[in-house]
Amino acid sequence: MKEALGERRFSSIPLYFRIESLLRNKILNGQWEPWEKLPTEVVFVEQFGVSLITIRKALSNLEQEGLIVRNRAKGTFVAENIDVKRKFVITNEVHNILQDADRYEVSDISLKEIKLKDARNAAELREFFKLTNEDKIYILRRTRLLDENPIYYLENYMPIEIAKSLSIKDLETKPLLNVLKEQIHLTIDHGVMYIEAIPADIDVAEILKTQLFEPLMLRQLRYWMPGGKPLEIVNAFMRQDYFKYKVNISETSF
Prior knowledge:
single chain, alpha+beta, 6-stranded antiparallel beta sheet, two-stranded antiparallel ribbon, 10 strands, 31% strand
């Protein structure tokens, strides 16, 4: 059933968007250089096994994005000046995660009490906090912007007794962990991080201004206080065109 659902999701992605994504990656990854001539529409039709209308839709979107230049007489070329995004590097070090939070402008911040059953990942939260679906929990939502572009959406799930000490004003200017440390002298004992690739669902796609089902990087963080008491689960939905993950490999790793 899970595989069938994945197949339905993928099949629902328009053909033109799949082709558009493939061509965009070739341009941004440098496989096609500025002013390099692209294959003709007929070649693309044969290569991808789709209609001419589909190819023209994909190329039209890339042209609007400023990645290609189309000339009816001469053909289609990679644009001369392409604004290649610099990807931010993620590591699993806590200090890196806190520094990362200072890079962006915070937008659309909200702090709300909800029933656990209304959370996105209710099963994980039940297990982590040892709660039931009818129990209450706080969710902190905010979007981080870079040059006014939303690139990072976060959901923090916390116990009510901890979240009640928070204020929106403080969270607009400081990372959550710093606020908790200053306000209630909270100490983190340890944490873990999981990273996976996921398709953007409806609400996250709208927040990050991406296409539905476009690949995103999900970084989930789990923190515990001394004594093994759970502090929070963080879901960080990140646009894959802005981020990449780094792992250092030493000689002793082999």
